[in-house]
Amino acid sequence: MAAPGQHLSRVALTAHKSIRLLIAEDTPMGCELLKASLKSPQAGISKFVSAITFDQITEAIKDNQIDVALINEHIENGRRSGLEIIDYLRENCPAIRAILLTKALSADIIITAFGNGAKGVFCRTEPIRALARCIRAVHQGQVWANSEQLEIILRALVETRPKRFTAPRGPSVLTKREEEIASLVAEGLTNLEVAKRLGLSKHTIGNYLFKCYEKLGLSTRVEFVLYTLNKRRPSQAMVSGAGTSLAAERHLTERYHHSSMQKIRDRESN
Question: Of the residues 21, 45, 189, 224, which has the fewest C-beta atoms closer than 10 A?
Fold first, then answer.
């Protein structure tokens, strides 16, 4: 008869094997190396799906039931930001729990990653067994963040001034359809509500927003909304004392950050 501890280990391992993992790296070799490193039974991963481009990622999540997405800080050889991918997943595939994989941790990366919907931020300097634990924890509904990372996030909520954006002068870099979507997003509509308003799919709206972020050099929905609002009021955006614009920035930033942090606190309390 097996010892109780051995029985429990096998039960836990069986549960862990339900994890279906998407690996998004900047090169095919990077995907293969991570896959090989995480193939041990202790990692508890039953299925691996690899991608190195945004199109491959959207196809992967459409054709496979992904539980956890391990997203590199940069994909497509650095041409796209993993932070944008995480924001896209939050809007279009909320059931997928994303982890940002980065070479070095910084306050900016930590704040933006969790603000975009990441459930964990993992540094490549950590051992691979720690990455396996991170994936299992996130899959089980936990947030992978140490006390230092949580302190950085909480401090940012209290101390960081809202980011100011100045709308560029001249013709818009967005297409007419993208401008239409931007206006609806700025009104507070979700992707699904925008899709219904325009007679498009939610997936199509997500793709439009991703292209807008890339064109404008933005990485979050909050930044995109602030850009759109300031573009409507260029004179206010240029004046430091524009109370209405600043109030809008504060309101939007606090709302989005509060929502993200509340989710983190809810997970930590469970």
Answer: 189
